[in-house]
């Protein structure tokens, strides 16, 4: 029985697939229904905890759940107590900044350092034409401050993470370089335009394991859904792993199911729990045979839909690769 459902935010719960169509209302209703069935709801994101609280208020959850922020750097309990905090030391932050500024200057647009005081400091490195710039100014403009290198290095602030933003043609290169030179840290490609560096152990996988230990949960009692590289550690530690169908192929490889939105994942979770419920003794489920037959049929239909989607995704990716090879041959 799945007892805990954890969702990522950007690109997952907060995702618009079609203009003028907001699937979040559908997902909001699905989450409310899941909570009514006794499943605990939690959020795991690379954002600050204050951003998670805004989403929680929007969802109007009856019971507050665990909040995982800063890619696992912070964990808050349902009673709003901070139970884990992992930070980059000043020397570590300086080393990362200096490396990007000296070795990756040509490939990098800018850095955003996220402090433990929930402030964002914006550092110009190269050219600024980048979609991520619009994202930061739109979401938390008052938290972004321009500062010189000297101010950054000499500050006594502690940091949750450093975000390196670049064009989508350079992020893979930057990700590889940071992985090789900072293997004592957590490095994730979080979007086509960003790579993030966090303290060792600050990932969603270790955060979920931490919560599972507190709650006494097994991996088969937890479900997670995400869409980016920073979600891979979480997808690995739970049995019921879901990924959005727009996620990169290397992320999809780590998930058990590919879905179009959070509501679809919740539908599968409810079917799974119903199936287990109907396998309980007759006294608990009086109409066991009929219910079990209906659930099996609905589960089969759902599996066929997902198999078809997988084939479509792999066909599209194979076609895209073959076209790229033809262009190279030409």
Any idea what the CATH superfamily of the largest domain is called? HAD superfamily/HAD-like
End-to-end span in angstroms?
A: 54 Å
Structural class: alpha/beta
Low-confidence stretches are 18-22, 282-292, 313-330
Tally of strands? 14
Text of the CATH class of the largest domain? Alpha Beta
**Bulk shape:** globular
Largest sheet data: 8 strands, mixed
What would the average pLDDT be, to the nearest integer?
Answer: 82
The run of helices and strands is EHEHEEEHEEHEHEHEEHEHEHEHH
The domain tally reads: 2
Beta-strand percent range: 15-25%
The CATH topology of the largest domain is what? Rossmann fold
Helix proportion range: 40-55%
The CATH architecture of the largest domain is: 3-Layer(aba) Sandwich
Radius of gyration: 21 Å
* Total count of helical runs of at least 4 residues: 11
Spatial order of strands in the largest sheet: 5-4-3-2-1-12-13-14
Q: What does this entry look like structurally?
A:
44% of the residues lie in helices and 20% in strands. Strand 4 and strand 5 form a beta hairpin. An 8-stranded mixed beta sheet has the order 5-4-3-2-1-12-13-14, with helices on both faces. The chain has a 6-stranded mixed beta sheet with strand order 8-7-6-9-11-10, with helices on both faces. The termini are far apart. The protein is globular, with a radius of gyration of 21 Å. It is α/β, with parallel strands linked by helices and 330 residues long. The protein has 2 domains: 157 residues, HAD superfamily/HAD-like (Rossmann fold), CATH 3.40.50.1000; 109 residues, 2-Layer Sandwich (Hypothetical Protein, Haloacid Dehalogenase-like Hydrolase, Chain: A, domain 2).
């Amino acid at each position: 029985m799945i007892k805990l459902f954890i969702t990522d935010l950007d690109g997952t719960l907060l995702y618009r697939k079609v203009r003028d169509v907001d699937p979040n209302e559908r997902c909001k209703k699905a989450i409310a229904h899941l909570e009514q069935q006794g499943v605990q709801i939690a959020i795991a994101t690379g954002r600050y905890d204050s951003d998670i609280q805004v989403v929680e208020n929007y969802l109007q959850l009856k019971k507050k759940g665990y909040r995982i922020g800063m890619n696992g750097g912070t964990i808050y309990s349902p009673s709003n107590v901070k139970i884990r905090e992992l930070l980059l030391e000043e020397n570590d932050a300086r080393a990362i900044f200096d490396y990007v500024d000296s070795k990756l200057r040509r490939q990098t647009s800018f850095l955003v350092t996220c402090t433990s005081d929930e402030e964002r400091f914006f550092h110009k490195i190269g050219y600024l034409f980048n979609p991520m710039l619009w994202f930061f100014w739109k979401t938390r403009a008052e938290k972004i401050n321009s500062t010189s290198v000297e101010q950054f290095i000499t500050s006594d602030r502690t940091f949750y993470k450093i975000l390196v933003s670049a064009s989508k043609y350079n992020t893979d290169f930057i990700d590889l370089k940071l992985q090789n030179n900072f293997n004592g840290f957590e490095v994730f490609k979080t979007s086509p335009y960003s790579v993030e560096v966090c303290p060792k152990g600050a990932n969603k996988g270790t955060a979920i394991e931490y919560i599972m230990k507190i709650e006494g949960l097994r991996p088969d009692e937890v479900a997670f859904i995400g869409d980016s590289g920073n979600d891979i550690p979480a997808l690995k530690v739970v049995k019921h792993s879901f990924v959005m169908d727009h996620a990169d192929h290397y992320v999809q490889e780590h998930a058990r199911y590919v879905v179009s939105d959070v509501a679809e994942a919740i539908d599968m979770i409810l079917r799974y729990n119903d199936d287990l419920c109907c396998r309980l003794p007759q006294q608990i489920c009086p109409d066991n045979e009929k219910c079990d037959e209906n659930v099996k049929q609905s589960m089969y239909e759902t599996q066929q839909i997902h198999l078809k989607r997988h084939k479509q995704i792999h066909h599209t990716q194979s076609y895209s690769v073959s076209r790229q090879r033809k262009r190279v041959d030409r």
